[in-house]
Amino acid sequence: MTVRAAMGLPVVGMVGGGQLSRMTHQAGIALGLSLRVLADATHDSAAQVSGAVSIGAHTSLEDLRAFAAGCEVVTFDHEHVPNDLIQALEQDGTSVHPGSVALRHAQDKLVMRERLAGLGVPVPAFCPVATLADVQGFAHHVGWPLVLKAATGGYDGKGVWVVGSADEAAEVVASGVRLLAEELVPLQRELAAVVARSPYGQAAAWPVVETVQSDGICVEVVAPAPDLSEDLALEAQSLALRLADELGVVGVLAVELFQTAEGIVVNELAMRPHNSAHWTIEGSRTSQFEQHLRAVLDYPLGATQMAAPVVVMANLLGGLEEGLDERLHMLFARDPALKVHLYGKEIKPGRKIGHVTALGGDLADVRQRAQQGAHYLRTGEWLQS
Amino acid sequence: MTVRAAMGLPVVGMVGGGQLSRMTHQAGIALGLSLRVLADATHDSAAQVSGAVSIGAHTSLEDLRAFAAGCEVVTFDHEHVPNDLIQALEQDGTSVHPGSVALRHAQDKLVMRERLAGLGVPVPAFCPVATLADVQGFAHHVGWPLVLKAATGGYDGKGVWVVGSADEAAEVVASGVRLLAEELVPLQRELAAVVARSPYGQAAAWPVVETVQSDGICVEVVAPAPDLSEDLALEAQSLALRLADELGVVGVLAVELFQTAEGIVVNELAMRPHNSAHWTIEGSRTSQFEQHLRAVLDYPLGATQMAAPVVVMANLLGGLEEGLDERLHMLFARDPALKVHLYGKEIKPGRKIGHVTALGGDLADVRQRAQQGAHYLRTGEWLQS
Fold first, then answer.
1. CA B356 – CA B370 distance, rounded (Å)
2. How far apart are the C-alpha atoms of A235 and A255, rounded to whole Å?
């Protein structure tokens, strides 16, 4: 399908109206594009800022088909489009990136674990579990506590339960969700290796970052990961590039990793722009949003060098519902070099409503500025420095 | 007037749907804003990418009033809104930045020259002229050739005539346009000092740049201006900051300068984001588009330090009508670190349809990359390096 916009440039459609679409649209403006967005509602984050918004359900083949008809390439800001619908679009001849075959590995944790284990990639010990007896059998090998995960539909810590006993496991099993069990990895910290790959097969990696989580949600990303050995950084990048190739990913692939005393273990995969690479907007010569567009359009990929020695992103999670504009004034006065990104979303407890990015030469200073910015926007109070 | 959007953030409206609005919208997305755009047509550069477009005439008070009713602050991407209409909006209580009093100095070259001369700022010798005899009288003082300028309405070399004789001057005078005459300044090169100022009175300056013109249109901007003495750079920045203050500018002020053997002379003023600061999108911690929004919203201004030692922007002027997408592929393959900005405009000879920005440490290399990028996108041919 060839759908062209102004200047003879292609039309990209993104399913989902969240902040990833919003920031992809922002990046696309420079490339002469105007991202088409399939959103649930006109007040969705991306729908507020795009000039080409379709309202529809990402679970409706009819809506997806109508949307795809106006696009040269269709891509996604989340993993929740049912895989059989993506297959139907592909059978229609729609160019969908990433495709249904690759995307299954980001949609179904069991499929992902089995495939990665088959490739010899380090993953936690895991096992599909349907009954409490299955969990108890697995616990016999890995001990308690262990991790239960919904095979599909989880995100930001949702769908993940650390259970310390058979009683606790019983509650999760009773929910009827399709589950897998995993060993609780004795991690030192979490890392992310983010890469992009084009249909042509070109791939590019950003520096490996450290991601800091709180209650299963990413709160901070430090680029590059402090005190990471060059060997381990190269291993993580190579692993992500290999997975992008083996799984046939087109677009951005984020590989979430656990660092342990023995090395690295793959936690999760995401095949779209990812929170662990928001720092690239100012922090890299090519942002993940521009790179995702370049990849799905099969343009040559952009340079991924860093724009500053240290870049730290802190997520803005929920916070005071009123007075954000006033806090923005105060924060800008205190730190004129901090970059603020707000998503236009209603402020709810714990919800990702934006992020801040600090850049500089000194890790402790840059980190403090990013944390300060996010904390102040959320609470209206300055951290003690 | 208080009009608030998502997250309790303000609504900014920009009159004009050109590339300056387009790039201001792009910057505003990060600030949680969704720029409202008053455009002539839905295919206008900014109208393609904004989610809040009003179609109307910038010369119609009715259209301007209807547009302003949905905005907390109104600003402009060009100088062509008649000053009396801006005054009418102000009398309605609309917050307009820059205001009518400041804007007159960017709308009427004679008003500007008289005001600057009154402030003791170096300007070329000038004189209002209505008849050929007036021109000849002025030529008696400054000699031929001299410059005739339309007092209002000119841009990109339009409305400026270098005339070598009374015969040539007669043709321009016969057009009936309101004119001023100026000496032809023996310039060594052109510079631009770009600053921003908020209603609170805070101001911030970017490094002074060299601007290279061809046929009266800017083709290249080099930041910082090579081989500019620190004294002259400071003088240019101080001059621009002083003018922003004296004229009461709110938003970005670009001061176009001639460098002569004796020092600097003011050529033109623009009170909006300006071509001479497009390099700030990647090249400065705060882009001129973000800064313009911060200024008109009376936020504290952002840091203006450079993000690389040398930044060069080259304008993309017209070029081959077909095949831009293919040329983009080739260019991205050759220079993965070049940043491309396309405006979604129909390609016409000489028209500004985009720009490219190169960043790095070596002036000759960075300059060559920017020139190469713009030349190739325009012609499909590589420059000899």
1. 6
2. 12
From A70, A35, A37, select the one nearest A54 (Cα to Cα): A37
Q: Is A142 helix (H, G, I), strand (E, B) or coil?
A: helix
Q: Give the model's pLDDT for residue A1.
A: 53
Residue B2 has pLDDT above 70, yes or no: no
- Written as one letter, the residue type at A33 is L
| pLDDT recorded at residue A92 | 97
Sheet with B52-55, strands from edge to edge, namely: B52-55, B36-39, B12-15, B73-76
Between positions 61 and 80 of A, the ones with CB within 8 A of B are none
CB contact under 8 A, B336 and A286: yes
Q: Is B348 on the interface with A (CB under 8 A)?
A: no
What pLDDT sits at residue B216?
Answer: 83
The stretch B349-375 carries a mean pLDDT of 97
Residue B385 has pLDDT above 70, yes or no: no
Domain assignments of chain A as residue spans, ordered by start: 6-96, 125-183, 189-379
Give the count of beta carbons closer than 10 Å to the beta carbon of residue B382: 12
- What are the pLDDT digits (tens) for A209-225? 999 999 889 999 999 99
Option in A7, A43, A51 nearest B47 (CB): A51
- Statement: the pTM of the whole predicted model exceeds 0.95: yes
Q: Give the minimum alpha-carbon distance from B269 to chain A in angstroms, rounded to a whole number.
A: 26
pLDDT the model gives residue B53: 96
Q: Per the CB < 8 Å rule, is B299 touching A329?
A: yes
DSSP character string of A65-91: HHHHTT-SEEEESSS-S-HHHHHHHHH
Q: Does B120 lie at the interface with A, CB-CB under 8 angstroms? A: no
How far is it between the farthest Cα atoms of chain B?
63
Contact check, Cβ <8 Å, B344/A34: yes
Write out residues in chain A with pLDDT < 70, as ranges.
1-2, 385
> Looking at residue A2, what is its pLDDT?
62
| B309: contact with A, CB 8 A cutoff | no
The per-residue pLDDT for B42 is 95
Q: Between chains, do B8 and A324 touch, taking CB under 8 Å as contact?
A: yes
Environment class of B274 (CB within 10 Å of its CB; exposed 0-12, middle 13-18, buried 19+): buried
C-alpha to C-alpha distance for A380 and B15, rounded to whole angstroms: 34
Chain B partners within 8 Å of A54 (Cβ): none
Distance CA A290, CA A31 (A): 8
Q: What is the pLDDT of residue A215?
A: 85
Using CA coordinates, name the residue in chain A closest to B323.
A8
Q: Smallest Cβ distance to A49: which of B34, B48, B323?
A: B34
**pLDDT tens column, A239-295:** 999 999 999 999 999 999 999 999 999 999 999 999 999 999 999 999 999 999 999
Q: Using the structure block, give the residue that is written with the tokens 């649930």.
A: A40
**Residues in CB range of A343: below 8 A, 6 or more apart:** A18, A19, A22, A45, A352, A353, A354, B32
Q: What would be the CATH architecture of the domain defined by B6-96?
A: 3-Layer(aba) Sandwich (3.40)
Q: Are B6 and A31 in contact (CB < 8 Å)?
A: no
Q: How does pLDDT run across B173-199, given as a tens digit for each residue?
A: 999 899 999 999 999 999 999 999 999
Residue A96 structure tokens: 């969908």
Residue A106 token pair: 């980001």
Thinking of the domain B125-183, which architecture would CATH place it in? 2-Layer Sandwich (3.30)
Q: Is the peptide bond before B273 cis (omega within 30 degrees of 0)?
A: no
* CATH of segment(s) A189-379: 3.30.470.20
Query: Collapsing DSSP states into helix, strand and coil, what is residue A94?
Result: coil
Please give the backbone phi and psi of residue A137, each rounded to the nearest 5 degrees, phi first. -60, -45
Segment B82-92 mean pLDDT: 98
Q: From CA B326, how far away is CA B376, in angstroms rounded? A: 11
- Average pLDDT (B70-75) is 96
